[in-house]
Every structure is written in C-alpha cells, then in structure tokens.
C-alpha cells in the first residue's frame, strides 16, 4: 500500500512541477508586460524638460532676448512640462473612458500588436522631431500604446490566477525605474536624447515576446477571437465580497451576488453602468492620489531648482523623476507583504505632500535638493501603493461575471487624476514664472 501511494505521488509530481512552472512564467510574463507597457509613458515624462528645451533651441534661428520666464526668480521653460503630461495622458483617458464598452470585440492578440506598433511610432517621432508639435504627436502615440495596454492587460489578468496582479503591479513600477534611470543615465553619459530614445526601441519588441512566448494561456483563451462571455477564469471566488453591496449586509449581498454570477453571456450596457457606479469607492480616491502626485511631478518639480547644487537644472529634474519611480517600484511590489484597503488615507497623505512642496516653491524654505529627493521618493511610495491595492481589492471583491469589465473600467481613475493635474499645472507654472 505504501508503495502504491509512493507511485501515485511520483505520478503527481510532474503535474505539480509543471503547474508551478506555468505560474512562474505567467507571473514573469505579466511583470515584463507591465514594464514594457509603461516604459514609453515614463520615458516621455522623464524627457519632458529636454523635449521642450530642444524644440526651443531648434526654433531659435537668430539671437533673441531671453524669454519672459527667464526674467523671473525661477528657471522656467516658456511652456510647462504639463504640456507633455497632457499629451501623455489625454489619449489614455479617452481610451479608458470609452473602450470598456466595446473593447471585448477586439481580440487580445490584435490589441497587443497595436500597442507595439504605436510604441515604436512614438519613439521614432520624438527622436526625429524638429518641432514641438511633432514631439507632442510622438508622445500621443506613447499614450495610446500605454492606455490600450493597461486596459487590456488588467482585463487579461482574470484569465490567470490572482497572483499575476502582483507581477503586473511590480512590472509597472519597474518601468518607472528602468525608464527614468536609463534615460537619466544614458543622457548624463553624453548620449544625446535622440540616440537614447532610439536605443529604447527594443522595449516594444520585448513586450511582444513576453506576451506571445512567455505567457501560458488557458486552452480556451480567445487569442484571436472576440471575448463574448465576460466570466472569470482565474482568482478565488470563495474569498470574494460583493463590490456593489453594503458592508452591513455582507452575507445577504454575498448570496445575492452568487445568484447573479449564475447568469451567463456578455454584460448589458445598463449592467456596466451599474458596475461603474460601484467602482467609484475605489476609483475616486485613486484619482485623488494621482492628481496630487502628478501636480507635484509636472507642476512643481521643474520649479524646485537649486543653483548651488552639483547637478544642473535638467539633471535635477531627471533625478526627481527617477527617485519618484523608485518609490513606485517598491510599493507596487509590496502586495505580497502588505495590503491597504483604505486608499483614502493614501490620498490624504499625498495631498499633504503637494501642499508642502507648493509652499516650498513659493517660500524657498528647502535648503537643498536632497530634501526634495526624499519627499519625491515618499510620494512614489504612496502612489504605487494606491494603484496596486486598488486593483487587488477590485479583483477580490467583484463577482465572477463582472470582473473582466471592472478591471478595465477602474483603470480610468488614475488617468483622470493625472489629466486634471496637468490642467491645474498650467496656471500654476504661469503664475510662478511671472514672479
């Protein structure tokens, strides 16, 4: 009998080993997808100061008086880096608002090819740009790639076990560090911004390889077909609480949502609107967090220049962005260690950061860039934690049938906050530069 048990155990071991190998490949695949998807977006923000400076110099064919902004007490570009931020986020916002209602009609494989093509186009256009508007169009293509990719890959996670969310979150954080650090390091090593962007063309190719060759798809996965039935394929429905329910009647709502999960077929338009209403408790605080942090990044950091510091203005700006992304990487990789459901707390702390740095820009009470480095690192920790915990709890608390749509629709929260911060940064930049 003992021998029979041993034989059965030996037979099971290859299957267990193969299952573990598949889970590791899927986690790694989503990590690389997160990194490649956000890479172009991050690089464009890191290059924002250089893009505007470069176009300013290209457009100056004859000596001209210094811009009005340079006569102020701040070292300002004539145009705020928020212009690059808006070009980098508005197309994403449009996609995230509209696509959840029809994106299931496009196969996942086709979406990935579109993401790769638009990312390559963005790097090429910004590299060879000779005008501000050509650069902005390049940034817009990066935004289309990032927005469509985030929407699609978050939806894709429902076909796999829930731990791939941790891989995706960590990878998006890694994109911040890799993109900002590579751009800062290569440009500081005397490589021109144009050549630096051309080197980064390898990243969209890595996205395609990660998706088509690294992920282990379920046999029924609709790779080149429309996703008609919106039911869950991964995750743990036993640990789920109803997204749309009231916490005071949790048991009753849990039973009700179980009955709802028995329904099959695609969600109706009315059902999707109802789900979006239930998502507001997650989406709104996430948007607040991102409004505050991108108001800092694109509205204030350019103005926090310390002339006596060892780094130039452009170098200080690049390393602000890099340290912010380090904080994002750490917190987006923390899901296996700590989970935070109270996103409102993170939103409040991020607003405190924005208020402190706004006062610092006006009153100049920070003695060194070192303190700003510490603050932006902490800012990144808050932002990354808000992102990864929001999608973790949405995945956990949505019903089986609604999860794929909910993951896509909730992605609008951070983009809406970023877009609003870009709009707010323009008058702030103009005000400070006029002093």
UniProtKB/TrEMBL annotation:
Main localization, broad class: other
What are the TM regions of this chain, as residue ranges?
30-48, 108-128, 134-153, 165-185, 197-217, 342-363, 369-393, 405-426
What GO cellular component is one of the record's annotations? early endosome
Coiled-coil intervals = none
Query: Subcellular location, in the record's words?
Result: Late endosome; Lysosome membrane
SUPFAM superfamilies xrefs: MFS general substrate transporter
Keyword entries, A-Z: Endosome, Glycoprotein, Lipoprotein, Lysosome, Membrane, Methylation, Phosphoprotein, Prenylation, Transmembrane, Transmembrane helix, Transport
Membrane protein topology class: Multi-pass membrane protein
* Keyword match Metal-binding: no
Q: Is the keyword Cell cycle in the record?
A: no
BP GO annotations: amino acid transport; endocytosis; establishment of localization in cell; lysosome organization; membrane organization; negative regulation of apoptotic process; regulation of intracellular pH; regulation of protein metabolic process
Q: What's the family? A: Belongs to the battenin family.
Q: What is this protein called?
A: Battenin
Q: Which organism is it from?
A: Esox lucius
